Amino acid sequence: MLPAVSLGPYEVSRLIVGGNPFSGFSHQSREMDEAFMDYYTVANIKAALFECERQGINTVLLRADRHIQRVLREYRAEGGTLQWIAQTASELKDQVSHIRQVAPLAIAMYHHGSLTDTCWHEGRMSEVRELLAVMRDCGVVVGLGTHLPEVIEYAEEQGWDVDFYMASFYALTRQHPQQLVVAGGSVPDEIYDDADRERMVAVIRATPKPCLAFKILAAGRKATSVGNLQATFEYAFANIKPTDAVVVGVYQKHMNQVAIDAGIVRDILNGWARGGK
Question: What is the set of domains in the chain, with CATH numbers?
C-alpha cells in the first residue's frame, strides 16, 4: 500500500489513477484520443485496474457514465477491490437522478470541474451548490472540481458544504470557457502555463480541506522522460499539503506506467518520511 490520506472516513492512496485515458480523453490531439479508445478495451481497462492494486494504489477516479459503470461492475465481479471516486457525467441532462443513481456505488463523488467552471463564468454557481447538496443527501463524500483557484476561494469564503476539492494545476477553462458540458474533449490550443500551478498550489495549501491535485503532468507534457516525471511528482508533493493526493492518468500500451508512477511516488514519500520531511 502506498502512503495514504483520509478522505472522509476512507483512506485513499496519495497516488490515485484517473480515468481520462480510459474514456479516450488525452487533452493532446484527436489522434491520441483515438489511440486511447483503441487500446482501452474493457479487458485492458480491467487489467490496468488490477495492476493498480498490485502496485499499492487503492483508489481510482473515473467518470460516472454508463460505460465506466459497466466496466467497474465486471471488474468487481472478478474480485476487484479499488475504491471509486466518481466524476459526474456532465453531459447527462438530469444531473439529480444521475447523482442519486451513482452515489451508492462510490466512496466519493465530485462535481465535474469543466461544468463547475462554466457555471462560474456564467454566474450559475447556485446550481452547482444545489447539486452538491444532492450528493450530501445521498451520504457520499462530497467534492467540488475546478481548474480555477478562485472557485475554491469562493467556495471557502461562502462556507460551502464540501469535503474535498478536485484542483487542476492548470487553468484550462480560463482560456476556454466555451467548453461547456462536454466531458473533457481535446482542444488543440490548450495552454499549460506553469504560472497557473503556482497560483493553484497556493490555494490548495490555504484550504484545510483535502485536495486532489490533477493535471499535474500537464496531460502528459511533463512525462516525456523518467527524470521529468520524477521532478514533476516531487514538485507536486512538495507544494500540496500532507493531507492531499494527486490524480494521474495512465496509458499502459507501451510501458507499465502504473508501476513507474507508483514506484516514483513510493520512493519520494518514503524517502521524505525517513528524512523527517
Answer: 4-255 (3.20.20.100)
